[in-house]
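ERR on first pass: missing label on line 2. Operator R.T. fixed the label and resubmitted. Corrected input:
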Amino acid sequence: MNEKLSYIKPSGIRRFFDIIERVKDVISLGVGEPDFQVDWVIREEAIYCIEKGYTNYTSNQGLIELREEISKNIKKNYNIYYDPETEIMITCGVSQALDIALRTILNYGDEIIIPEPCYVAYKPLAILAYANPVVIKTHEENNFKIDLDHLRKLITPRTKAIIINYPNNPTGKSYSKNELKELAEIAEEYDLYIISDEIYDKLTYNGKHIPVAKFIKDRVVYLNGFSKSFAMTGFRIGYVCCNEKILKNMLKIHQYSMLCAPTISQYAAIEALRNEEKILGRILPEYKARRNYVYKRLIEMGFKTILPDGAFYIFPKIENLNVDAEKFSEELLFKKHVAVVPGNAFGDDYIKYIRISYANNMEKLKIAMDKIEEYVKELSVLKI
Amino acid sequence: MENELLQILESNPNLNIKDISKILNRNEDEVREIIKELEKRNILKRRYIINWEKIGRDRVYALIKVKVSPERGRGYDKVAERIARFNEVRAVYLISGEYDLEVIVEGNNLKEIASFVSNKLATLEGVRSTVTHFILKKYKENGEIFFEEEKDYRLKISF
Ligand SMILES: Cc1ncc(COP(=O)(O)O)c(C=O)c1O
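pass 2 clean. output:
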């Protein structure tokens, strides 16, 4: 058995998640995927592909039409140019792109800096790539952003890369132009790669998203996909953009371990990008309204909460209540039939936070917020 | 702000003033005032869309195309208004092509609609000819689909 696997522990809160499936009539605010169905133009295109028999392998790197569409999209949205021939590869979701990016960049024993709280896959994938994940905690007082002085202290001669994710899962926070610039300068100074998971970029409600590649394109491995902005989670499709040298090497892993991303999904993804404005125009105002509503409700309930910039998560602190996040989540589930994710799923220190996903319609969000409010009141009474 | 409010209401018609004030981060009186104003200006209209067929109440609908001689100075508007004022009429559109107006009429049965067309519509001054298509089944109206809603197949927890 691969020894590395013994370092990857099944998370302690696994038990909690097993229980959830057994509780009936739950409103789940624990879901990491959009509630919007995939837009019909995309589904229609997928059906059409099957009818036409577009069901063969594609080139390892992915359909050139899709790579061109991605290149155009990044150019249009961010004015950054990636060559579809040599700098873009289609993957099975950002998940697979992450896996091969780490295996490509890191050598045995290299260090990679991972800011927490973060998406659950980063640390395990780094370990599987035979690297040492070095965690940098981010704090609510600092809007859950990386403290750059702290970052400098963590860098050693073995540090090869840093992973960033913004808008962030689970905090919803993003980085500003200046913050990204400073981060880019550090990467330059210490000769680091930045693996940038920007899967929620299109779901930004405050200001404008800026890819960190804007500042040091050559050092950035830019990851994005269709799971969140187009709700295409089950299509399993994403992409990576980076310099030719890294891409060539990533392609070596991809071609032997995956061969190519699902063909039908690749065609569907082309259609998604071609209809981007229409589709986002429909969902963005809705997400923004939900974010504002949930934020306001949480604040009124007395939670310390930071207004998210994007994605569909909010990460309130449950500090004044006499429970930790696991107990809170479990009781909320059993007593009020509302599911949330305890913060420690995203990093050991976040046991006083919960992640709420507002990827639910307003009606459900209203009921769920009422129930959380009831539960919090009951807790406060108990405390006195 | 008005735009944002209208967009929210369009997709969430059940929200109350309190909810909207939280979403827009404005006080409730302000929101109430804006909604009143939008209603007064005929920008915001409320109406339920009911799938009558589903509860067994048979209503009959017809789509009627009308050729009209436009009137000097007022074009089609005058005759369109006269048609629109009938309670039986659900919609009136000025259209391009062979015909000039498209009218959607509602009635209790075929006979009622036929008599409306021959007695009221066709006899109006300016109406030259009509063609009537009875609507056999409704699949989508005002953006609302009359098929089963799609289920939520998501796992209850995912990261
Ligand atoms: C930050 C982040 N990265 C990557 C993923 C995985 O996305 P994909 O479906 O593209 O593999 C997720 C999904 O939850 C995520 O939240």
